[in-house]
Amino acid sequence: MGLSGISLLTTTYSLILQHQSLLLCLRAKGFGLDLKKDMEGVDYLSDERKKAQFDVEAMKIAWAGSLEAFQLSDRMAKLVANDPAFEKFTRPMLGRKELIKNTLRKAAHGWKLIVDLRLTEEEAKWLRLYIDEPAYTDLHWGMFIPAIEGQGTEEQKKKWLPLAKKMQIIGCYAQTELGHGSNVQGLETTATFDPQTDEFIMHSPTLTSSKWWPGGLGKASTHAVVYARLIVGGEFHGVHGFIVQLRSLDDHSPLPGVTVGDIGMKFGNGAYNTMDNGVLRFDHVRIPRDQMLMRVSQVTREGKIMQSDVPRQLIYGTMVYVRQTIVADASKALSRAVCIATRYSAIRRQFGSRNGGPETQVIDYKTQQSRLFPLLASAYAFRFVGEWLKWLYTDVKERLAANDFSTLPEAHACTAGLKSLTTSFTADGIEECRKLCGGHGYLVSSGLPELFAVYIPACTYEGDNVVLLLQVARFLVKTVSELGYKKPVGTTAYMGRVASLMQNNCAVQTAEGWLNPGAVVEAFESRAARMAVRCGQQLAKYENPEEGFAELSADLVEASIAHCQLIVVSKFIEKLQQDIPGKGVKQTLEVLCYVYALFLLHKHQGDFLATGYLTPKQASLANDQLRTLYSKVRPNAITLVDSFNYTDHYLGSILGRYDGNVYPKLYEAAWKDPLNDSDVVDGFYEYVQPILKQKLRTAKL
Ligand SMILES: CCCCC/C=C/C(=O)SCCNC(=O)CCNC(=O)[C@H](O)C(C)(C)COP(=O)(O)OP(=O)(O)OC[C@H]1O[C@@H](n2cnc3c(N)ncnc32)[C@H](O)[C@@H]1OP(=O)(O)O
Ligand SMILES: Cc1cc2nc3c(=O)[nH]c(=O)nc-3n(C[C@H](O)[C@H](O)[C@H](O)COP(=O)(O)OP(=O)(O)OC[C@H]3O[C@@H](n4cnc5c(N)ncnc54)[C@H](O)[C@@H]3O)c2cc1C
């Protein structure tokens, strides 16, 4: 018997086993048989795993970034998965009060582990990630502490950071207001210096100045970094951060003059409702002068404003830091959804049965592949661009510490643009994964609805995605306008070759011709450069540049997307120039890299054609190559998602189970729903039976 014969037999056997276990479950419900007899321990995806053409363990390390990073993340994932305190199956069924209490309990348990096991900050970060429940701790560690680190003086850091790091105070980041989020300079909360008492008076003068949205503010935080208009001597001196105590450290009650609470339920069940996003108002609350974060500007005892040589934009520094982490998180969320959709697509069968044999695995449909594999490739692309962005951020941070601010504008543009690009794509990608799972994807037990509901605000928080792309556009327009006398560097270095990028057209003649990193990068560079230059030319026609910018903003957003996609493609290609150990690992990643690039080229072929860089024939050749690449991904699909090394606990999905034992577990889960606690539904006697028993008098009905 040939290999394909053996494989057919094993597949059929797997199917029979699945059907048998389903039958056992069905009987279990009907006749009280033992549910445990379903085929626990059988790997329904083992045939798929045997198809791998690369070393999965080595790919896990490539995904994690290093052996140490892999081991650390794996250890934390298992620690959480094996601890029943972190169970999350019932989360979407909990009411809001229970939900928040449950989250507080998990956060406390997590903190106990961190202290008892003496975990490092890096380990603690991974532990919180795998607990997988948005909580006040995200903002405490993710924004409150970084805000003090980035904007505090040495003295302020010495005072506040030990308290925060030992969790003797809990902090949040209170910037957004009811009336203003994107427009930070439009914030209305005031911090007025009182030279008599050497204090700032924090005040919310209008309803719209109420702080609105800060995570952790609603119920947990004792302190906040509050962004407010600095007023000294009756004059406005820009928006600054102030450390303000909100609640008593004894009984947690709000301090005098502070009104604080939760803003209410948000999208989805469970999901982001575990977070206490809050509202906050001040009625002339006094804080000592030294609680203004004073790295950028200082207010002296006499009420003089002193500017340090640190640029004003550093006030926005925490956002640069968090946007960078959000890019890394995009790859986690997308890879999680893709892992679920890929495993389930290999289990799910529809149509195509011949002679009573098994139906076709839906993953073998070319349409399924053309929707799923670009998402898989994007998860890897975002992982690597996230790694690069982390490097860029670390580099900027070191430069800032040495008072070199030259790379801050680029860091701002890259973090803003990539945050926007990756979160928008990931949010759409999770929803696509739900559709790829058909009807079962809509079940909460698929894990996808909650993942989607938790993820989508990433398109809004830390800067609305369109507003952020407009920031990139400003950076690009500036770069283009300076081309005559300033050499562009970093991610805009390609603009230095603008003349040739505008003139030269694509040389690819065959589908194989697209398997060339140089050809791919040049295509993306030419498209981005041409779109940016075109915007620059259009803008030049306006007398008032701001009016022109507003008028052309939709085109500017497109140009920014082209620039950011170029960054992701280039960083993936650069990654492949490194030494990546493991049999077949680099080759498999090369396939994914081409999938990512050619998928984008196909999707945005309008840009490539309209800018005149590609001919329709060359665009069509790229699409031909893409189909071939999908066939190369197919045998590796399951092991490529195994390489994310996600535990079943973290995935939280019956469809994405590692062992593929989907149907019995779906069936079992249905019976755990509280609605099935009784056969006759609550409310039947009040509301249903009277209808069934009614005797209608009218003949018409
Ligand atoms: C742990 C994860 C959970 C996350 C929970 C969520 C938390 C949050 O959402 S916190 C709140 C986040 N809020 C935002 O992101 C607000 C978005 N708005 C802004 O960032 C800014 O207001 C703006 C950038 C959209 C506009 O700033 P503005 O000063 O009014 O306007 P300009 O365009 O004139 O910019 C002036 C100048 O500053 C540069 N710049 C702007 N932002 C930054 C930055 N973050 N870092 C460095 N530089 C920045 C900008 O490029 C301009 O430079 P020049 O052109 O050289 O003058
Ligand atoms: C779940 C969640 C958690 C959050 N956590 C925090 C937190 O911890 N701390 C905190 O301070 N804030 C937090 N926020 C607030 C968040 O940062 C803001 O909501 C975000 O910055 C967007 O601002 P906005 O709500 O003012 O949107 P708006 O600016 O009102 O956006 C509305 C629409 O207008 C468009 N728009 C706005 N300005 C422009 C423009 N110049 N040009 C073109 N279009 C424009 C936008 O694209 C969008 O379509 C959180 C928000 C959410 C949803």
UniProtKB/TrEMBL annotation:
GO cellular component, alphabetical, reads: peroxisome
**What SUPFAM superfamilies does the database record attribute to this sequence?**
Acyl-CoA dehydrogenase C-terminal domain-like, Acyl-CoA dehydrogenase NM domain-like
The GO terms this record gives for MF are: acyl-CoA oxidase activity; FAD binding; fatty acid binding
Q: What is this protein called?
A: Acyl-coenzyme A oxidase
Location of the Acyl-CoA oxidase C-terminal domain: 517-693
Domain named Acyl-coenzyme A oxidase N-terminal: residues: 55-170
Q: Which domain of life is it from?
A: Eukaryota
Catalytic residues as annotated in Swiss-Prot or TrEMBL = 462
Query: What is an annotated GO biological process for this record, any one?
Result: lipid homeostasis
Family assignment from sequence similarity: Belongs to the acyl-CoA oxidase family.
Domain called Acyl-CoA oxidase C-alpha1: residue spans: 316-477
Gene3D superfamilies noted in UniProt = Acyl-CoA dehydrogenase/oxidase, N-terminal domain (1.10.540.10), Butyryl-CoA Dehydrogenase, subunit A, domain 2 (2.40.110.10), Butyryl-CoA Dehydrogenase, subunit A, domain 3 (1.20.140.10)
Q: Which organism is it from?
A: Mikania micrantha
- Tell me which InterPro entries the record gives: ACOX_C_alpha1 (IPR055060), Acyl-CoA_ox_N (IPR029320), Acyl-CoA_Oxase/DH_mid-dom_sf (IPR046373), Acyl-CoA_oxidase (IPR012258), Acyl-CoA_oxidase_C (IPR002655), AcylCo_DH-like_C (IPR036250), AcylCoA_DH/ox_N_sf (IPR037069), AcylCoA_DH/oxidase_NM_dom_sf (IPR009100)
Needs which cofactor? FAD
Locate the residues binding FAD: 176, 215
List keywords of the entry alphabetically: FAD, Fatty acid metabolism, Flavoprotein, Lipid metabolism, Oxidoreductase, Peroxisome
Q: Where in the cell is it found?
A: Peroxisome
